[in-house]
Write a structure and sequence with these properties.
- The structure is a homodimer of 298-residue chains.
- The longest helix of chain A is centred in the N-terminal third of the chain and has 28 residues.
- Helices cover 43% and strands 22% of the residues of chain A.
- In chain A, strands 4-3-5-15-6 form a 5-stranded mixed β-sheet, with helices on one face.
- Chain A is built from 10 helices and 15 strands.
- Chain A has 3 domains: 87 residues, Winged helix-like DNA-binding domain superfamily/Winged helix DNA-binding domain (Arc Repressor Mutant, subunit A, Orthogonal Bundle), CATH 1.10.10; 95 residues, D-Maltodextrin-Binding Protein, domain 2 (3-Layer(aba) Sandwich), CATH 3.40.190.10; 106 residues, D-Maltodextrin-Binding Protein, domain 2 (3-Layer(aba) Sandwich).
- Chain A is α+β, with helices and mostly antiparallel strands and 298 residues long.
- In chain A, strand 1 and strand 2 form a beta hairpin.
- At the A-B interface, helix 1 and helix 4 of A face helix 1 and helix 4 of B.
- Chain A binds a DNA duplex (30 and 30 nucleotides) through helix 3.
- Chains A, B: This is LysR family transcriptional regulator.
- Chains A, B: It comes from Arenibacterium halophilum.
- Chains A, B: InterPro entries: LysR-type_TF_proteobact-type, LysR_HTH_N, LysR_subst-bd, WH-like_DNA-bd_sf, WH_DNA-bd_sf.
- Chains A, B: Belongs to the LysR transcriptional regulatory family.
DNA sequence: CCCAACCATGAATTCAGTTCATGACCGCAA
DNA sequence: TTGCGGTCATGAACTGAATTCATGGTTGGG
């Protein structure tokens, strides 16, 4: 019994259920002619006439009836079984460990996972603000919400949030002590808390938009950190300016712990990305989360 | 369950049977890459991962195993059924020689062969009421319709008719001359035309049901015959009682040539059997007849 | 550490399935 | 008896899904 025959058998079944080629074709989404060719081809392969055709009537021959007698229960069982595993397959379960900053958790992650765990009671989500991208490779976390695209060749990053705006911030104490810059060029006279992710990687650029032009400032300062939380800590402590996405500094701005400068020079850019290791066997729960986050972006 | 999926399912089965995509591809006559695409497409359609792949090993997931558990018997049944009808459908042709009594021909054989020769124009059926079981072994006939099960070790008998009732009959002339028995015991005072099939075999029993008990009467008479037709001939001639299945004597009863006695004592028993030599290479036409007679019994 | 065997996948190819066009057949009504 | 409408059959033309090609990634064994 060859593979191509199997689809043809379901055409045979449709013909006998509908009673003519034309209606069977409608049901299957093909033309009457295609049905005719298909049945003819099947009969040639098996070497037996399966249908008697007269004008206005199609009936199964005895051989056809015998074949259909085996076909009906078999296809019914297979259809049922496929539906069962499809339904069961839609029951993701297990733990998904996500590392995400508090703002990303609040703005991007929480709206999605809140509904997800209602829809799929067997899924549990662990969210930690302390993880690092390197934790993904070491399987301490399953995914991370981060700004910008992926950095490692084996890591996948998909956008899951709207475009963002950067903010340059410093403590009131620092500003009182060192003055408030009114242009990005002035930052060259200030201390800036820089970031990079890998100790051997590039330092993150501070980009500004001056007279419609994108300008990258090469700055310096007392710290090069790899964690936005630490950048905030250092900025609050008066060690200089931090340059972070607006959501990440909003709480400090609201509380007055930090003040924003050069807002009119700050461009918008791609927002949060979901990062995960691009390996094969992602759990169904993780796949589900990835799909949901992608979908929330549209 | 759509048509295109069915062929893909047989690819899935081949992969799990062969243990890898490459060998499955060889079996199916397609490349390893085509197998990979096919499995991927099937998994996308169903929405469930069916196989775990690692280097050098492919195994079914739980969902895949469940699907395969339904797939295997279904495809086996379909494959067998297709092979059956293909075999039968190899345009059976030629002559099938059947020996059958007139009642068996009328009641059992005719309804089946009438349609069979329409379906298969190359098949011809010869029916003779003169044959004997011994003619099967000597290849003068291909099969026989007979009451009761087979007698020779190399002969096969399959039931092809409903249960029957025996009838004890005699001619009106005999009854007028010798009297009408009103109990099976009275037969001991009468002439009875006996039957057996092999000259060295046992004489056929005359069984009656008396007060709910089965009773075998040991009787005697002027003839021991091996053919029901001859028994009827003898009974019509007034030689005594015949003991035959009701269908075989119906015509004589209807015409008044014979009269039935002791009807309330006659039990029912297994009916007509199709007898044929149990050798291997039965012609396709004979196999077809056998299948049809078996099927007509259900 | 290297190699062989296997799977994955995007792009390109190909040919089997399908449509198109149209003829043949048949049942039914006028 | 004839005409019409509905259905099946089939060869030729078309097309898109299945398959191949090319190649990269992974992994187990030597």
């Amino acid at each position: 019994m060859d593979r191509d025959m199997l689809g043809d058998l379901s055409t045979l079944l449709a013909v006998t259920e509908e009673g003519n080629f034309t209606r069977a074709g409608h049901r299957l989404g093909i033309s009457q002619s295609a049905v005719s060719h298909t049945i003819r081809r099947l009969e040639d392969k098996i070497g037996v006439r399966l249908l008697n055709r007269s004008a206005r009537k199609v009936t199964a021959t005895d051989a056809g009836e015998q074949l259909l007698a085996a076909l009906r229960p078999s296809f019914q069982q297979l259809g049922n079984r496929i539906e069962e595993i499809r339904t069961l397959g839609e029951r993701p379960s297990g733990l998904v460990r996500v590392t995400s900053s508090a703002p990303a958790t609040r703005d991007i992650l929480w709206p999605v996972v809140s509904q997800l765990v209602r829809d799929y009671p067997d899924v549990r989500i662990e969210i930690s603000s302390e993880g690092r991208l390197s934790d993904l490779a070491e399987d301490r976390f399953d995914c991370a919400i981060r700004l910008g695209e992926h950095l490692s060749p084996d890591m996948i990053a998909v956008p899951v949030g709207p475009q963002l705006e950067m903010a340059a911030v410093a403590s009131p104490e620092y500003l009182a002590r060192r003055g408030t810059p009114d242009h990005p060029d002035a930052l060259e006279e200030h201390d800036c808390i820089l970031m990079r992710h890998r100790s051997d990687g590039p330092v993150y650029d501070w980009e500004f938009e001056i007279d419609g032009e994108d300008v990258v400032k090469k700055l310096s300062g007392p710290f090069i950190l790899n964690d936005p939380g630490h950048v905030l800590t250092a900025a609050r402590a008066g060690h200089g300016f931090g340059y972070l996405p607006l959501p990440e500094v909003r709480a400090d701005l609201d509380s007055g712990r930090l003040r924003r400068v050069l807002a009119e020079f700050c461009p918008r850019f791609d927002g949060y990305h979901l990062c995960y290791m691009g390996r094969r066997n992602l759990s169904s729960a993780l796949r589900l989360l990835i799909e949901r986050l992608k979908a929330s972006q549209s």
